[in-house]
Design brief:
globular; 68% helix; 343 residues; 15 helices; mainly alpha; two-stranded antiparallel sheet; ABC transporter involved in vitamin B12 uptake, BtuC; 4 strands
Length: 343
């Protein structure tokens, strides 16, 4: 039983990333009808927002430390971050330590700006083009963004550690009645799951309870009628593209302590995220979230040592096998709507 609980926790961790990326993909498809293959790159850009802020916070200058000597007895020169000069050593060290959570505030305006720029500069020219054209141009954009990141940050992974307060693991088993030490789970993975739930809840609340969100949902159902009412629905959809980019970016920001950022991490999640969207149902926001967690848990169980010994390599294909079974039994996906992409 403890092994089952542990795999469910691992699945919720992976499913959180899948659900957030798929949620942004579905927002874009549901509002603009665009199949955005550059969405994985937005996840990657969010992760590199964390890297960028960490480098900014650790910019330093040399000072002479009279308390430290070299082997000749001369005072040593040490690098002191500028942030120590501005806020003091203890506060500055705390700010650097909390670089990952602070990157949320740094990434939101950047990712919204990137999303709006993508939509206005490129995507809007492909609204009425076939989905194949949309896939080609957005996939090409993803490769360009990937190569830009590779050029400026290099090809190697860049560590982005979690704050010291969340380093280590929780004895989850003791909390739920198992023997102490039976289920040990990292603190930051729990934080990531809670963050994903808050972000998903915020998106749904925005669409459900704000006037802006209600208009957007009406536009998703009948764009032409909303436009005839004198509402500039295109402008609102542009904002939604920016919000979808921010959701993907924030998913990448908080994922950096789990998987160190690298230039190809967006591509690693891209194909799986599209499978999640299709399994959940094209255009269905609840379906995208549900499918993300279901497939994440399924992949986690397929990665167990006992399963791999019985069926080698099944963990690499289990998501696609599950997608085949689900789509054969429910062609529109788990929560898909009639008429979406059935022309």
């Amino acid at each position: 039983m403890d092994a089952i609980v542990l795999q469910i926790l691992n699945g919720l961790d992976k499913g959180s990333a899948y659900a957030l990326i798929a949620l942004g993909l579905t927002l874009i498809f549901g509002t603009l009808g665009v199949v955005n293959f550059a969405h994985g790159a937005l996840f990657m850009l969010g992760a590199f927002c964390t890297v960028t802020l960490s480098r900014i916070l650790t910019l330093s200058h040399e000072v002479v430390d009279p308390t430290r000597k070299d082997f000749l007895g001369n005072p040593l020169k040490v690098d002191v971050p500028y942030i120590y000069d501005w806020f003091g050593e203890s506060t500055g060290a705390a700010i650097i330590d909390w670089a990952v959570p602070l990157s949320i505030l740094f990434a939101i305006p950047i990712m919204i700006g990137i999303g709006v720029l993508m939509e206005r500069g490129l995507i809007k020219h492909f609204y009425k083009r076939p989905h194949a054209d949309q896939i080609l141009v957005t996939f090409g954009l993803a490769i360009v963004l990937q190569e830009i990141i590779k050029y400026y940050f290099g090809a190697n992974q860049i560590p982005a550690p979690a704050p010291q307060a969340f380093v280590g693991s929780l004895d989850f088993g003791a909390l739920v009645g198992f023997e102490p030490g039976a289920i040990i789970y990292p603190y930051w993975r729990i934080v990531y799951f809670c963050f994903a739930m808050l972000l998903v809840g915020a998106v749904f609340a925005f669409l459900q309870f704000t006037t802006f969100g209600m208009v957007v949902r009406a536009g998703m159902a009948d764009r032409e009628t909303v436009g005839l009412l004198g509402i500039n629905i295109d402008r609102r959809f542009t904002v939604m593209f920016g919000i979808a980019a921010a959701v993907a970016g924030l998913a990448g920001v908080m994922y950096t302590p789990i998987n160190s950022p690298n230039y190809h991490m967006g591509m690693d999640f891209l194909v799986i995220s599209f499978v999640v969207v299709v399994v959940g149902g094209m255009g269905s926001l609840p379906g995208a979230v549900l499918a993300g967690f279901v497939l994440g848990i399924l992949e986690s169980f397929a990665s167990m040592r006992q399963v791999i010994e019985l069926l080698p390599g099944v963990n690499q294909v289990v998501i696609y096998l599950a997608a085949i079974v689900i789509l054969l039994t429910r062609p529109r996906g788990l929560l898909g709507r009639r008429g979406v992409m059935e022309d």
